[in-house]
Amino acid sequence: MLWNELFDKEHEPSNEQIAEFLDTPLWDDLSNHLQQVYKVKPKKEYSGCAMDEGVWKGWNVKYKKNGKSLCTLYPKQGYFLSLITVSEKDAVEADLLISLCCDYTKDLYNRGEFKNHYGKMMGFEVTSEEILRDLKNLIPLRAKK
């Protein structure tokens, strides 16, 4: 069953229900990392976005610091999506970081384009320690003041 079918807008999932649905230690790893390193708290929000065949629809978990989104996490069965944006002003630093990343992350970054004031938006399918490591290495770009 799809995440947005299990928990509609009127039924916010508990942290335990999210963990049970995900069934991956990568979620707790990233969540603990964000809370310890950046001293941020997770905030659940509902998205009605129908983009990409509704993959972004449903409850998500946002992490923000200094009014900027560090990343937004979208539960999926057995894995999760993480949406992160790289601003154009951080492109040079991001290019250097990306050169050290796995092929999946390099491809994701190279397929993206800088758009408007949003920057380059990347939707990671966090399915491995390698992808999680790359994500953790890119998040500091978002945490800068």
Describe the structure in your own words.
By secondary structure, the chain is of the alpha+beta class. The protein has one domain (3-143). The chain is built from 7 helices and 5 strands. The chain has helices spanning 3-6, 15-22, 25-38, 51-54, 91-98, 103-111, 129-143; strands spanning 43-47, 58-65, 68-76, 79-86, 120-126. Strands 1-2-3-4-5 form a 5-stranded antiparallel beta sheet. A hairpin with a 2-residue loop joins strand 3 (68-76) and strand 4.
What value does the average pLDDT take?
90
Sketch the topology as an H/E string, one letter per element.
Answer: HHHEHEEEHHEH
Give the class from helix and strand content and strand pairing. alpha+beta
Q: Spans with pLDDT under 50 lasting ≥5 residues?
A: none
**Fraction of residues in helices?**
40-55%
Q: What's the structural domain tally? A: 1
Distance between the termini: 40 Å
- DSSP strand content: 25-35%
Q: How can the largest sheet be summarized? A: 5 strands, antiparallel
The total count of helices amounts to: 7
